[in-house]
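Re-run requested by the PI after the first attempt was lost when the workstation crashed. Everything re-entered from the original request form. Ligand of interest: flavin-adenine dinucleotide.
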Amino acid sequence: MRDGPDIVIIGSGIGGGTMAAALAASGRRIVILERGERLADCPEARDDRAIFERGHFRPDESWFTPEGEAFNPGNYYYVGGNSKLYGAVLLRYRAEDFRPIRHLGGTTPGWPISYDDLEPWYQAAEELYGVHGDAGQDPTEPRHSARYPFQPVPDEPGIAAVRARLKAAGVTPSSLPLGIDLDGWLKRAATPWDAFPDTTGAKSDAESVGIASALRHPNVTLETGALVTRLEAEADGRIAAVLYRQGGSEKRLAPKLVILSAGAVNSAVLLLRSGVANRSDQVGRNFMNHNCSAVLAVSPFRRNTAVYQKTLTINDFYLTGGAGGTPLGNIQLLGKVSGPILAAAGGVPRPAANWLAGHAVDFYAMSEDLPDPLSRVTIQGDRIVFDWRRSNWEAHEALVAKVKAVLRRAGFPLVLSKPFDRRTPSHQCGTAKMGTDPETSVLDIFCRAHDHPNLFVVDASFLPTSAAVNPALTIAAQALRTGDHITRRDLAA
Ligand SMILES: Cc1cc2nc3c(=O)[nH]c(=O)nc-3n(C[C@H](O)[C@H](O)[C@H](O)COP(=O)(O)OP(=O)(O)OC[C@H]3O[C@@H](n4cnc5c(N)ncnc54)[C@H](O)[C@@H]3O)c2cc1C
C-alpha cells in the first residue's frame, strides 16, 4: 500500500488553483505544494506608496539578463500566485487567435486545438470565476455558448463620459469582462484593484476561487512555504518523486500524477533543473510577455475623479489596422493611476505626478509578442537568466500611434505613453508550448509532457501564442479541459 498522495500540484496560481478545483471531486488524494504563504490583510494592501514605491509585495529575488545584470521581477509568490495582484480582466482569446495570423513582425504558428475545442471550457471558467460582462458589445468577441454569469461592472460617471467621447471619435468601446465583486472590493477601501493585492475574496483570483473551491473537499490539502526543488524521473519516463523544501527540511512525495503549475518562468526553471521533459529542447524557449505601454490621456480642463476606472476595452485594432491589414492589439483601461504610482513608475516629480494623475485617464495598450526560440529562460547555477527578445514591436508602435490619435479626437490634447519593460513579466507565457509533435513541442494538447506519462504542465507556459489579450482566462479554460481529461480517463488511478 502506498500512503502518498495520488496527485501533487505544484503552485496555486490560476493554472494550479483551477486544476485543483477541476480534480477535487475525483476523490483522489491531492496535495498542493505552494512556495508562498497566504497574503494576510495589512494596511499595505491598499496603500499605493507601499505597493508601487516600496514594492512591499514584490519577491526578494533577482533574475539576470544574459549580460549578468540583476533585476527584481514583479512575479508574486503567494497562495493564488500572480492573480492575487492581477487586474481581474478575464477575456477570451479571439477565435482568429487559434489560427496562423500574419503580423507586422512575422506569422504566428496557430494552435493545435481550435477555438471551438476550448469554447465550452471558456464558458465553464467564466462561471467558476464569476465573470461580469456582456458578449454583445465587442464586434471581435468570439462565439459564446451562454451569457456571462453577471452583468458588466458599471462605468464610473466620468468613465461613462469617456466611453461616449470614444464612440464619437469613431471607435467601439465595450465593457471589460471582469472577475470582481465591486461592492465587496470597495467596502475594504476605495482603491483600484489592478496591481493591488486582494485580501477580501472580492477579486476572483486563484486563491478565493480555485483553491477555495478545491479545499471544500476533504481529499485536498494545501501545503504553504513548500518550495519544490526537483522532479525525479525513472528510466521508463514516469516522474517518481517531487522534492521540496519546507520549514528548513528537505521532503519528498511520490504521487501517481504530477501537475506542474509554477508559472511560465518557474515551471521552465524546474524542468531545466530536473533535466526532464526536454527532448525537444524547447523548455524555456518561446518566452512571450506582450508588448505593453501605459497611455495617459490628459485634459488640463477636466479632473478624473474615478476610483477604479478599469471598465472598458477597445478592440477596433485587434484584428486589423496595421500595414497590409495586419493586427495591432488590444486597448483597455488601467486601474486608476495615482500620483505616487506615476512618480514611482515614471520618475516624474511628485507635484507634477499628482497633477498629471488627477487629470489623466489611464489606458493600457497591448500587442502580441510572437514565439521565438531565442527568446528564453535558462539557468546558470542558481541563477534564472531571462533573455526576453521582444518581437512585433513595430505593431505595438503602430497601436500606440493609433490610440493616441483616437484619444486626441476624443478631447484629450495631451497623450503620453511609456512602455513596460522586463521588470514587469506580468503576462509571461510560452516556455513549454503544447503541440502535436514531440520533436518540436513540450506538451500534448492536454498539457501532458510528451516525455513523461504522469507529468502535466498547466500554467501560462503551455500557451503556443500570446495573442493580445490578458492570459488568465485562457489558462483557466485549458486547466478545466485538462482536469476533465484526467478525471474521465482516471489517469491518477
Ligand atoms: C499586476 C498584474 C496584473 C495582471 N492583470 C491581469 C489581468 O487583468 N488579466 C489576466 O488575464 N492576467 C493578468 N495578469 C497575469 C496573470 O496574473 C497571470 O497570467 C496568471 O496569474 C498566471 O498564472 P499561472 O498559474 O501561470 O502562474 P502564477 O500565477 O505565477 O502561479 C504560479 C504559482 O506557483 C508558485 N510557485 C512557483 N515556483 C514554485 C516552486 N518551485 N515550488 C512551489 N510553488 C511554486 C508561485 O508562488 C505561484 O503561486 C496580471 C499579472 C500581474 C502581475
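Saved to the shared folder this time. The first strand starts at residue 7 and ends at 10.
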